[in-house]
């Protein structure tokens, strides 16, 4: 459950949020990029053992601490396991000074009106209760915008905030993530629509309610500055969205008040075959680069 100390760190801290929340569908790709091919494991359980080992290796690296990494988003199976002999969320906060978040969505529904909304989450309340018991600060849920369709974008954002209110009811801070696909031809137009839809939903939140936003790096620098400064927003973070780290950090540095919440761009260059010294050096370089871009604005 959110604490005042954790909130202060996220509100005022000079750093970024690590996204360590690849789920079942994206795990094979994450492992391939890490140097573990699908012929190296036979079952889903073995796959999750391997990806947990990767995440634990990252979390225990010397550079992965609260000086530059403000928070980390965990997959449900990561929350349920241990890192360094302690429950994962507890280890992150107590040992590393990193605020733990939990990915709660169950994947994407089929495309409709240019968006892919979130699948139903019938067990969300029980998952949130488990998160509170585990020491989770907040949550993350992802949906996708694939076209500048005003109707679809409005529905997408409305779903995000509806579930966000449910999450707030458990004393957790939701990260609302309507990702705009970076390859669409009308990305800039979609982002204008998204900004306006989010602003309308923020204005409708009750006084005292606070959410975070996770948004695709926009085509227009500082497009989301009004959201950064909105009284209902604790922090705006950016996803790397498929941009390589160099491109992602360059775009991020152009947006005042926005910090990173990178997944692929964070783990780029890490390999299971690296020695501990090589791995720790590569991760430290990534953390330094992403941190520098996050505080540039």
Total strand segments = 11
Termini gap: 30 Å
Radius of gyration: 18 Å
CATH superfamily: Aldolase class I
Which regions have little confidence, pLDDT < 50, spanning 5+ residues? none
Q: Give the domain tally.
A: 1
How can the largest sheet be summarized? 9 strands, mixed
What is the strand content?
A: 15-25%
Number of helices: 12
Overview of this protein structure:
With 297 residues, the chain is α/β, with parallel strands linked by helices. It has a single domain (4-295), classed as TIM Barrel, CATH 3.20.20.70. 44% of the residues lie in helices and 18% in strands. The chain has twelve helices and eleven strands. Strands 1, 2, 5, 6, 7, 8, 9, 10 and 11 form a nine-stranded mixed β-sheet that branches. Strand 8, helix 8 (187-204) and strand 9 (211-216) form a beta-alpha-beta unit. The longest helix is centred in the C-terminal third of the chain and has 20 residues, at 276-295. The protein is globular and about 50 Å long. The mean pLDDT is 96.
Descriptive key words:
11 strands, alpha/beta, 297 residues, TIM Barrel, 12 helices
Summarize the structure.
By secondary structure, the chain is an alpha/beta fold.
Write the layout of secondary structure elements.
Elements: H1 4-12, E1 16-20, H2 27-33, H3 44-60, E2 69-74, H4 76-79, E3 82-83, E4 86-87, H5 88-96, E5 99-103, E6 115-116, H6 124-134, E7 138-145, H7 150-168, E8 173-180, H8 187-204, E9 211-216, H9 225-228, E10 233-239, H10 245-253, E11 258-260, H11 264-267, H12 276-295
Parallel strand pairs: 1-2, 2-5, 5-7, 7-8, 8-9, 9-10, 10-11
Antiparallel strand pairs: 3-4, 6-7
């Amino acid at each position: 459950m959110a604490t005042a100390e954790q909130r202060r760190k996220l509100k005022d801290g000079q750093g970024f949020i690590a996204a360590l929340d690849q789920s079942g569908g994206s795990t094979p790709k994450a492992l391939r990029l890490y140097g573990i091919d699908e012929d190296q494991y036979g079952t889903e359980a073995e796959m999750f053992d391997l990806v947990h080992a990767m995440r634990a290796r990252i979390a225990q690296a010397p550079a992965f601490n609260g000086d530059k990494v403000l928070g980390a988003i965990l997959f449900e199976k990561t929350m349920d396991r241990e890192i360094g002999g302690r429950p994962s969320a507890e280890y992150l906060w107590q040992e590393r000074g990193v605020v733990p978040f939990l990915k709660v969505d169950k994947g994407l529904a089929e495309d409709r009106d240019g968006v892919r909304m979130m699948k139903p989450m019938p067990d969300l309340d029980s998952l949130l209760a488990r998160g509170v018991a585990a020491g989770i600060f907040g949550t993350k849920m992802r949906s996708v915008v694939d076209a500048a369709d005003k109707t679809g974008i409005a529905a997408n954002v409305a779903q995000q905030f509806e579930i966000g209110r449910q999450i707030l009811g458990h004393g957790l801070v939701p990260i609302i993530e309507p990702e705009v696909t970076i390859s669409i031809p009308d990305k800039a137009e979609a982002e204008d629509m998204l900004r306006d839809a989010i602003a309308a939903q923020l204005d409708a939140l009750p006084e005292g309610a606070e959410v975070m936003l996770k948004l695709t790096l926009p085509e227009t620098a500082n497009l989301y500055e009004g959201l950064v400064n909105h009284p209902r927003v604790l922090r705006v973070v950016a996803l790397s969205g498929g941009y390589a780290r160099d491109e992602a950090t360059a775009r991020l540095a152009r947006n005042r008040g926005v910090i990173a919440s990178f997944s692929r761009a964070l783990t780029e260059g890490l390999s299971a075959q690296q020695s501990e010294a090589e791995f720790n050096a590569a991760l430290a370089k990534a953390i330094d680069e992403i941190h520098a871009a996050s505080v540039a604005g």
